[in-house]
Design brief:
Aspartate Aminotransferase, domain 1; three-stranded antiparallel beta sheet; alpha/beta; 9 helices; single chain; Aspartate Aminotransferase, domain 2
């Protein structure tokens, strides 16, 4: 594509402002979006020629920078061979190799990988996995989630219901969403000595409602969209122990925290825990294309297989699909 002449940018931006609905933008927008002409490394070149540093890494996704030669070459090579093929009943070497690497890189015992196209969908799949697990055990009453305030897990309907109900972006949909349980947000501070009142409040809710809770969903170590709220690994470790104690699943949302964002490859490693279900995305492709994945443990796989073979089970435990 030929470079756009500066004189043409005004026309393009005017059309954009009138017709393009950008994420989290007000309608109508009082200010136009900022035009971008090119990217390189960590630098964004604006339509007016100014260079700026992308301090948010394109919503925390472009961890290797823009126009990385290795990633670009891999994309060129793949598009020449097979730009697309459906994944239903078919497979291919890149998907298999990626699944192998993810199983090797993520915490122990995460053995099954479900690929999807975005972080929100990865969380939707995780929720379906959790609900299906309990349906397959003939415990369909375990159909609610427990999470913490200041959290963010996506913009689709199931995930909106797990975002902060008051300070999040989705409160206007509150009458349309499944009502889940919200514990107080973890106390801020990575290295603090805590009185554990936050985890005590969390346990109080879990103890009262564990018979109807399918899973706990949480962003490990840092709540990104909630204000970059870092909390202590001991809290996460206690959450894992409480989930085991009260017989609920643990879903960790590593979509923003995964692939080195917190200083370890995955934030769960700070607490040395393995969740039952883990969601990853964003940095999975370095921001070069949309891709996400949901991984789960052998415990979930074994239960679904057993339920499939058990003709007395009233559920129909099919693997989650979207």
């Amino acid at each position: 594509m030929n470079p756009i002449k500066p004189s043409h940018w005004d026309t393009l931006l005017a059309f954009d402002q009138k017709h393009v609905w950008h994420p989290y933008a007000k309608i109508p927008s009082s200010t136009p979006a900022i035009g971008v002409s090119k990217t390189q490394g960590s630098v964004i070149t604006l339509a007016d020629g100014h260079d700026v540093i992308d301090g948010m890494s394109s919503w925390w996704a472009t961890i290797h920078g823009y126009n990385h030669p290795v990633i670009k070459q891999a994309m060129h090579d793949q598009i020449e061979i097979m730009p697309h093929i459906m994944f239903g009943g078919l497979t291919h070497q890149p998907a298999i190799e990626l699944a192998k690497r993810l199983i090797d890189l993520t915490p122990p015992d995460l053995v099954k990988v479900f690929f999807s196209d975005s972080g929100s969908v990865a969380m939707e799949v995780a929720i379906k996995m959790a609900l299906q697990f309990w349906i397959s055990k003939n415990n369909p009453e375990k159909n609610r989630l427990l999470t913490v305030r200041n959290g963010y897990h996506g913009d689709t309907f199931a995930t909106m219901a797990t975002c902060d109900p008051d300070n999040g972006m989705h409160h206007i949909f509150s009458q349309n969403l499944v009502q889940h349980f919200f514990a107080p947000a973890p106390e801020m501070g990575f290295d603090i000595e805590s009185d554990n009142s936050d985890i005590q409040a969390f346990e109080t809710l879990l103890q009262a409602h564990h018979t109807t809770i399918a899973a706990v969903a949480i962003e490990p170590i840092v709540q990104g969209a909630g204000g970059m709220r870092f909390y202590r690994p001991a809290y996460l470790k206690q959450v894992r122990a409480l989930c085991t104690q009260y017989n609920v699943l643990l879903i960790t949302d590593e979509i923003a925290t995964g692939f080195g964002r917190t200083g370890k490859l995955f934030a769960c490693e700070w607490a040395d825990i393995t969740p039952d279900i883990m969601c990853i995305g964003k940095a999975l492709t370095g921001g070069y294309m949309t891709l996400a994945a949901t991984l789960c443990t052998q415990k979930l796989v074994t239960q679904l297989v057993m339920a499939t073979r058990d003709s007395s089970c009233t559920a129909q435990p099919l693997w989650p699909i979207l």
